[in-house]
Amino acid sequence: MHIGLFIKNFFSFFVEPLGLIMTLFAVGIFFLFRTRIKMAKLFLSVGFLFLFLFSYPPFSNFLIKGLENSYEKYSASQQIKYIHVLGSGHNTDPLQPLSSHLDSAATKRVLEGVLLYKKIPHSKLIFTGYEGKTDVSTAQMNANLALALGVKKEDMIINGLPEDTRDEALFTKTIVHDKPFILVTSATHMRRAMKLFQIQGLHPLPAPTNFYRDDTDSLFQSPLPGALLKSKIAMHEYIGLIWTKIRG
Fold first, then answer.
1. What is the rounded CA–CA span in Å between residue 171 and residue 165?
2. 204, β-bridge pairs
3. Which of 90, 142, 185, 233 has CB atoms 3.0–4.6 Å from 86's, for a disulfide?
4. Does 215 map to a domain?
């Protein structure tokens, strides 16, 4: 991992829900040991407030919907040559089957890409994404699953170098140039991905998958760990959108 990506991930942790809450608790405990009780109460109370808020399903669903409602499932009928499936997470544990090597987001992205590939004659799949903490790239792991699902090897373009969405956009530009193509990624990530690709002068057609939103409107729900995860995913994307806007 390049130092720039490491620094970005390090600082983003502290402004996302879990890192923010842990920081508030740590500062509160620090003041508690320094017998500055008022400050300790303030930081611990705010920490508990954020823990409740980000774990409260209606609030996490509100954050998620703000991202996922931007684009619905792909339903265009035009014949598109390229389908770009963005990378996500994976592992290379030899004791696990291929179906477990990709995380949930990656699996659904590949499945959506393969379904579109089988629906559109003469199309090709683009897989991108670096190796992360393993010795095999996400792009190759995604391609392995696609191959097992019946995609021809000659219909796949694999690049394991891009470390983030901007890098993926720069690579795809060398292939599609100014022609439209289908962009497959998680629904929460689609807004930011579209902006990053459009900044490069590209014309992606959104095909979101891996939706997290819940149609339940009841406010009488207890905090849940799953809601905290949804809040984390949403806040990561909102921070990414702000950073994208700052970078222009």
1. 10
2. 181
3. 185
4. no
Residue 98, domain extent: 82-209
Say which residues have a Cβ less than 8 Å from residue 243's Cβ, sequence separation at least 6. Answer: none
30 backbone dihedrals φ, ψ, rounded to 5°: -60, -50
| Helical spans, DSSP H, in the chain | 3-13, 17-33, 37-55, 57-68, 104-119, 138-148, 165-176, 187-199, 225-247
Length of the chain (residues):
248
CATH classification of the domain holding 194: 3.40.50.620
Tell me the pTM: 0.89
For residues 184 and 243, membership in a common domain is answered with: no
CA angle 110, 67, 128 (to 5 degrees): 30
Note whether 189 and 96 are same-domain residues.
Answer: yes
What is the torsional sign of CA 107, 112, 116, 118? positive
